[in-house]
């Protein structure tokens, strides 16, 4: 009986080890890499290039990309001085200087870092948070620093959207929208993207529609920053209306939240 007991324990230990091993393999598989196709450039979240279906060259693991992106956000949006880096008036920082500072702080962790990794991060970011030109990189939005924007101002949609705390909606409709903890007011290109941005902070954000066509007609400047992000210095209340919670597009966005939670 005792012999059978220890056989059972040994069998269970082997099973646990096997489960752990398979879990590690699964996690490794889910850690999608950034790769580079020789013909179509950088891509992520797949082993094969979405344009030609050929396997690209390994560039960066997604967890390395996320770690790098978090540090870039601190430097390019908020505090370049913490890394002893110089930023120009338009928000640009030299990539080679960033690499030098990172390696100085932690050579072992960043020994692999090269300039092309920054371009890979920029080009595979779905929200267009970063822009690379030559040897320079900058954040396109999210700044708490005061910088002079030289972003595009053409082809602005006639309406943009802003998510807010439901308790603050009436106040914003009366006094307008000003930056809160950032250098500019951030607007979204669609009800869906505004809803997603608002969901980060509020269970059920109130969405406001901004008449950007009228703003432009009145001489206001609107900058196109990220893929779905636009920036303004402020929004006067005369340009703002409330989106109803039963708006079909907003209902579709909320339905996705329910699906994701189930």
What's the main sheet like? 3 strands, antiparallel
State the name of the first-level CATH class of the largest domain.
Alpha Beta
List the secondary-structure elements in sequence, H or E: HEEEHEHHHEEEHEHEHEEEH
Reported CATH architecture of the largest domain? Alpha-Beta Barrel
- Low-confidence runs: 24-30
- Overall strand count: 12
Mean pLDDT: 87
Radius of gyration: 24 Å
Order of strands across the biggest sheet? 2-1-3
In short:
The chain is of the alpha+beta class. The protein has 2 domains: 58-139, Arc Repressor Mutant, subunit A, CATH 1.10.10.970; 159-261, ADP-ribosylation fold (Alpha-Beta Barrel), CATH 3.20.170.
Secondary structure topology:
Blueprint: H1 2-30, E1 33-37, E2 41-44, E3 57-61, H2 62-78, E4 93-94, H3 95-105, H4 107-110, H5 115-123, E5 130-133, E6 136-139, E7 159-164, H6 169-175, E8 185-188, H7 191-199, E9 206-211, H8 212-217, E10 223-224, E11 229-232, E12 240-242, H9 248-261
Antiparallel strand pairs: 1-2, 1-3, 4-6, 5-6, 7-9, 8-11, 9-12, 10-11
Helix pairs in contact: 7-9
Task: List the main descriptive attributes of the protein structure presented here.
262 residues; Arc Repressor Mutant, subunit A; ADP-ribosylation fold; 3-stranded antiparallel beta sheet; 9 helices
Written account of the structure:
The protein has helices at residues 2-30, 62-78, 95-105, 107-110, 115-123, 169-175, 191-199, 212-217, 248-261; strands at residues 33-37, 41-44, 57-61, 93-94, 130-133, 136-139, 159-164, 185-188, 206-211, 223-224, 229-232, 240-242. By secondary structure, the protein is an alpha+beta fold. The chain has two domains: 58-139, RNA 2'-phosphotransferase, Tpt1/KptA family, N-terminal domain (Arc Repressor Mutant, subunit A), CATH 1.10.10.970; 159-261, Alpha-Beta Barrel (ADP-ribosylation fold), CATH 3.20.170. The chain has a three-stranded antiparallel β-sheet. Strands 4-6-5 form a three-stranded antiparallel β-sheet. A three-stranded antiparallel β-sheet has the order 7-9-12. Helix 7 crosses helix 9. The two termini are 46 Å apart.
């Amino acid at each position: 009986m005792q012999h059978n007991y220890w056989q059972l324990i040994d069998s269970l230990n082997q099973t646990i080890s096997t489960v752990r091993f398979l879990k590690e393999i699964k996690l490794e598989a889910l850690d999608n890499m950034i790769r580079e196709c020789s013909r179509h450039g950088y891509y992520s979240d797949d082993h094969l290039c979405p344009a030609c279906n050929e396997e690209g060259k390994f560039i960066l693991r997604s967890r390395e990309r996320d770690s790098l992106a978090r540090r870039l956000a601190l430097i390019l949006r908020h505090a370049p001085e913490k890394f002893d880096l110089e930023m120009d008036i338009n928000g640009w920082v030299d990539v080679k200087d960033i690499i030098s500072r990172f390696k100085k702080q932690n050579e072992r962790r960043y020994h692999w870092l090269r300039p092309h990794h920054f371009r890979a991060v920029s080009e595979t970011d779905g929200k267009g948070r970063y822009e690379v030109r030559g040897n320079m990189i900058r954040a396109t939005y999210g700044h708490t620093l005061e910088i002079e924007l030289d972003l595009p101002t053409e082809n602005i949609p006639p309406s943009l959207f802003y998510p807010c705390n439901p308790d603050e909606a009436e106040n914003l409709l009366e006094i307008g929208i000003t930056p809160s903890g950032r250098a500019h007011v951030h607007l979204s290109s669609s009800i869906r993207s505004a809803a997603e941005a608002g969901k980060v902070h509020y269970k059920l954000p109130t969405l406001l529609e901004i008449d950007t066509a009228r703003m432009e007609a009145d001489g206001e400047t609107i900058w196109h920053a990220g893929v779905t992000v636009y920036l303004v210095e402020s929004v006067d209340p005369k340009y703002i209306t409330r989106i109803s919670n039963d708006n079909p597009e907003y209902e579709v966005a909320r339905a996705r939240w329910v699906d994701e939670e189930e």
